[in-house]
């Protein structure tokens, strides 16, 4: 429920007024300044920003659990699709010729990933940075692979720009993304 509280504070007061910080408490006469409203500093506020953008795009004044659940399911299916695309392209790249084999393997991999108990029971009920960052990890993984396989300089430039935006978004959402990017950077050095 924290993300709903944080996004609603941003929707009501604007993120600029709150300096893009997540506050535990809404504006009230009980608090003289922002520091008394208990800033939540355990995670960066990128996850709040991600949900806030969708709320603004859809013209929402506030959000509720239903809004968050719908957004969460869209993200989950996008993650699953990106994983399937990555597996499909990887299988094609290693030389598997059969479209049926590539399609079935990609589908089953994504299906089994979506059925992992953590994904089914925990992440489906809790939306915060650890769930939000998975979409950006899957997107980065797929774009990085496409960039690795790309032969066109102009397309590779576009893919690199997308990677920069994904990295920026990912590091603002969860600290785990820093580790992921560090590993990707090391692998890039090793295989270049």
SSE topology:
Layout: H1 2-13, E1 22-23, E2 39-40, H2 46-57, H3 65-93, H4 99-114, H5 117-122, H6 129-149, H7 153-173, H8 176-191
Antiparallel strand pairs: 1-2
Write structural notes for this entry:
With 192 residues, the protein is an all-alpha fold. The protein is 69% helix and 2% strand. It contains 8 helices and 2 strands; from the N terminus they run H-E-E-H-H-H-H-H-H-H. It has a two-stranded antiparallel sheet with strand order 1-2. Helix 3 (65-93) runs antiparallel to helix 4, helix 6 (129-149) runs antiparallel to helix 7 (153-173) and helix 7 runs antiparallel to helix 8. The radius of gyration is 19 Å and the shape is elongated. The mean pLDDT is 91.
Summarize the structure.
This protein has 8 helices and 2 strands, in the order αββααααααα.
- Helical percent range? 55-70%
* Strand tally: 2
Give the topology string: H per helix, E per strand.
Answer: HEEHHHHHHH
Strand content: under 5%
The structure class reads mainly alpha
Task: Report the C-alpha radius of gyration, rounded.
Answer: 19 Å
Average residue pLDDT: 91
Major beta sheet, specifics?
Answer: 2 strands, antiparallel
Number of alpha- plus pi-helical segments: 8
Q: For the largest sheet, list the strands in their spatial order.
A: 1-2
The shape, in one word, is elongated
- End-to-end separation in angstroms reads 44 Å
- Give unreliable regions as ranges: none
